[in-house]
């Protein structure tokens, strides 16, 4: 092959990748993106835990939907849980009125 033909082919390949909507991923790309197996992505789609598109036999998943799925599964660290628990208890103490407490027998 001559260099001009190789360069034209390379330019065409690059142009195709640039024009492809990068926010849509195949099952394999989605699995690589979040670091799981393809079978896990298929489980997520078949149980409808993540939205997907099915043009023909191909399954496509939006990158933002995967990001949202991951963000929704954030596990809070203990310091954050403790802080929320303290804030909740403090708010509950402040919301109870003294007369109602003293009015009960005991």
How does this model look, in words?
The protein is mostly helical. Helix content is 62%, strand content 6%. It has a two-stranded antiparallel sheet with strand order 1-2. Helix 2 (27-34) packs across helix 3. The N and C termini lie far apart (97 Å). The model has no long low-confidence stretch (mean pLDDT 86).
Quick structural summary:
This protein is mainly α and 106 residues long.
Please describe the structure with a list of short key phrases separated by commas or semicolons.
about 110 residues, mainly alpha, elongated, 6 helices, two-stranded antiparallel sheet
Describe the biggest sheet?
2 strands, antiparallel
Supply the number of helical segments.
6
Radius of gyration: 27 Å
Approximately how much beta-strand content do the residues carry? 5-15%
Name the overall outline: elongated
**First-residue to last-residue Cα separation:** 97 Å
Q: State the share of residues found in helices, binned by percent.
A: 55-70%
Task: Please specify the SSE layout and strand pairing.
Elements: H1 3-19, E1 24-26, H2 27-34, H3 38-46, E2 60-62, H4 63-71, H5 78-95, H6 98-102
Antiparallel strand pairs: 1-2
Helix pairs in contact: 2-3
């Amino acid at each position: 092959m001559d260099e001009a033909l190789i360069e034209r082919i390379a330019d065409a390949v690059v142009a195709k990748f640039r024009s492809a909507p990068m926010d849509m991923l195949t099952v394999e790309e989605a699995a690589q993106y979040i670091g799981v197996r393809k079978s896990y992505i298929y489980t997520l789609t078949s149980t409808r835990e993540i939205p997907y598109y099915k043009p023909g036999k191909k399954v496509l998943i939006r990158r933002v939907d995967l990001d949202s799925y991951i963000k929704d599964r954030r596990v809070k660290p203990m310091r954050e849980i403790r802080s929320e628990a303290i804030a909740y208890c403090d708010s509950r103490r402040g919301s109870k009125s003294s007369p109602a407490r003293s009015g009960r027998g005991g």
